[in-house]
Description:
2 copies of one chain form a homodimer. Chain A has a single domain (56-201), classed as Tetracycline Repressor, domain 2. Helix content of chain A is 73%, strand content 0%. The longest helix of chain A has 26 residues, at 7-32. Chain A is mainly α. Chain A has helices spanning 7-32, 35-42, 46-50, 56-80, 86-101, 112-120, 126-151, 161-180, 187-199. The A-B interface holds A 26-27, 29, 31-32, 108-110, 114-115, 117-123, 131-132, 135-136, 162-163, 166-167, 169-175, 177-178, 180-182, 187, 190, 193-194 and B 26-29, 31-32, 108-110, 114-115, 117-123, 128, 131-132, 135-136, 162-163, 166-167, 169-175, 177-178, 180-182, 187, 190, 193-194. The structure holds a DNA duplex.
Amino acid sequence: MSPRKSAAEARRTRERIVERGVAIASVEGLEGLTIGRLATDLGMSKAGILGHFGTKETLQLATLDEASAVFLRVVWQPAAHETPGLPRLRAVCEAWITYLEHEREIFPGGCLFTTASVEFDARGGRVREAVARLHRLWRRRLVGELRLAVTAGDLPSGTDPEQVAYELVGLYLALNQAIQLFADPLAPDRTRRALDRLLAQA
Amino acid sequence: MSPRKSAAEARRTRERIVERGVAIASVEGLEGLTIGRLATDLGMSKAGILGHFGTKETLQLATLDEASAVFLRVVWQPAAHETPGLPRLRAVCEAWITYLEHEREIFPGGCLFTTASVEFDARGGRVREAVARLHRLWRRRLVGELRLAVTAGDLPSGTDPEQVAYELVGLYLALNQAIQLFADPLAPDRTRRALDRLLAQA
DNA sequence: TTAGCTTCCGATCGATCGGTTGCTATATTC
DNA sequence: GAATATAGCAACCGATCGATCGGAAGCTAA
């Protein structure tokens, strides 16, 4: 029925699949993201979906990549122009809070990375490795900013960047839980207070 | 073939189902816990499994209850006899770290509460409510100990117990991720260092 | 001893899972 | 303009999902 589209249209179709995939996976998880559900939502056949990826695992990896792009666009980009070190880190932290507060408008079911991390942390496979890689990458970026902050003198010279990054990630895991599970409106301010205690020793 | 067992045997069968359910769910999630998998693992029929619970949702709730009992037994009980307030809280925190470090011996796939929290935080239903209730209960217990610590003078009078409990939970979410996803052997010590900074202002 | 309750099984249900196949119709390439 | 490559569909595959059914078998109370 629907025959071959132009290469450009096909690319657009693939984008639509991945975008919808991110939305579904943020609610149902990357395993709960099924081909049939995608096909129904997009008014396509299952074969039409799978044709773009070959296997479900590849679809999951593509979904993860898209989510990563969204995260960087929303959390990193707005802060990228700030002066590297503590100022930029501060800006990133604030954007990160905003991201988690309003993520329903981006990911209907909350941060896909947190979901995927917990979903795959007890399994093997390429998806698990991709999730771990993305988390490592992000943590490394945080550590980098912290290091700059230390050498710039914005943080005490005794500061352990890895340690601070570790605690930082914990704060955002707590924030995600408070928002998603408890719908706690106080959580963003709690996070800010904890951040101040963690970073404001200039 | 296998006919009626005595009431005691039936209770034991139910226990075996729930215990195995906890092990499976800690790896696959509470949705990934399937009747067929349980039946195969236990050498029973699917009907035999479901007969004890009626629906999968009830099975999930029973699994969650068992996991809760295990958690309290491993994390709370060993510390329960300590003097209430900061000493007991310290003991609980150390037991909590030990629990997450060695949880593979308890839950093959990591802390079931963290898994369930993320798995159901974007859905409705009784399981989600049960997960939220258990998390709230635990957090309330932490807040109670913190309050005692403040009135005992072991923490500064300006301390906000809710705030500290919030950050505490974040630390353990980070620890769970570091252990399960990254297999990071440094994480327990990082957690202890963060705990000291958070609590040791006596 | 017997009647009834309960545990558990084997079989089966409709739905859905990920994935394959054969095909059509068009875009692209030569 | 002919040959080729390809997007997407309809139909279907075996496996598995949660759930239901009638019956078999033994515990338990009368």
